[in-house]
Amino acid sequence: MKEKDIDMTKIKEDLLGEDIIFEVSNLYKVFSDETRLKILNALLLSELCVYDISSLLEMSHSSISHQLKILRDMRLVKTKKKGKSVYYSLKDDHIQKIIKIGVEHVCEK
After folding, report:
1. Which of 35, 54, 58, 104 is most buried (most C-beta within 10 Å)?
2. 41-76 burial, b for 16+ CB within 10 Å, e for fewer?
3. Element (DSSP H or E) covering residue 52
4. Which structural domain range is residue 65 located in?
5. Which CATH number is 94's domain given?
6. Is residue 2 part of a domain?
7. What is the band of 3 on the pLDDT scale with cuts at 50, 70, 90?
8. Is 91 exposed, middle or buried (0-12, 13-18, 19+ CB in 10 A)?
């Protein structure tokens, strides 16, 4: 049986561009921080304010705020103001899917 010829030119044309590779790499770097992943995990379950998140994770408000800024800058969370409080939630379903796929992968036997 003859092996299928590989069209290297086609593969090269279909490779992601450097700018996309850079952005995706930065996205995954955000997920590599345990505190940010814990925050995202909490936000999977409910919209929360900084006070709620810091209580859940037993961390300082400033630590949580710092990580939330990174998550906002990467467009992973969105905010909604209710009175004097700001509530955070996941920006869209993509974030939930990324986390779910990661959890499924590490839980595979």
Report:
1. 54
2. ebbeeeebbbebbbebbeeeeeebeebbebbeebeb
3. helix 50-57
4. 14-107
5. 1.10.10.10
6. no
7. low
8. middle
